[in-house]
């Protein structure tokens, strides 16, 4: 995949294959955490419904784990957003350096 480019961003931007690999890895990490959260939430609900004291006290740790997972997802999305912005900025600079012909930038009113 190294050296491959992707130009499906609508504005003709080309993205290196390594960048796509990074995005894919991050999205897989996010999905894995969200899947784990789903299981945690199910276990928390079961423990709550059981009203067994040991299960209810176990929920404290499960909820902490859930909160930590949510923080990890937020951090991963923040990193993705920052990386995407850098790529788009670099692409915009490349396009404005003369490789654009006949394209107009639409600015919001």
Automatic annotation (TrEMBL):
Entry keywords, A to Z: Biological rhythms, Nucleus
Nucleus is among the record's keywords: yes
InterPro entries, per the entry: EARLY_FLOWERING_4, EARLY_FLOWERING_4_dom
This protein's GO CC annotations: nucleus
GO biological process: entrainment of circadian clock; positive regulation of circadian rhythm; rhythmic process
Domain Protein EARLY FLOWERING: 15-95
Compartment(s) of residence: Nucleus
This protein's record includes keyword Nucleus: yes
Pfam families to which the protein is assigned, alphabetical: Elf4 (PF07011)
Region listing for Disordered, in residue ranges: 88-109
Family of this protein: Belongs to the EARLY FLOWERING 4 family.
PANTHER family cross-referenced by the UniProt entry: PROTEIN ELF4-LIKE 4, PROTEIN ELF4-LIKE 4-LIKE
Record-given protein name: Protein ELF4-LIKE 3
Species annotation: Rhodamnia argentea
Organism lineage string: Eukaryota, Viridiplantae, Streptophyta, Embryophyta, Tracheophyta
This protein's encoding gene: LOC115756320
């Amino acid at each position: 995949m190294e050296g491959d480019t992707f130009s499906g961003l609508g504005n003709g931007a080309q993205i290196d294959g390594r960048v796509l690999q990074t995005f894919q890895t991050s999205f897989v990490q996010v999905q894995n955490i969200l899947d784990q959260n789903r299981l945690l939430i199910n276990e928390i609900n079961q423990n709550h419904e059981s009203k067994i004291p040991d299960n209810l006290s176990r929920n404290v740790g499960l909820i902490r784990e859930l909160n930590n997972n949510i923080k990890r997802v937020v951090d991963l999305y923040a990193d993705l957003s920052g990386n995407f912005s850098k790529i788009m900025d670099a692409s915009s600079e490349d396009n404005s350096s003369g490789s654009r012909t006949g394209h107009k930038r639409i600015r919001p009113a």
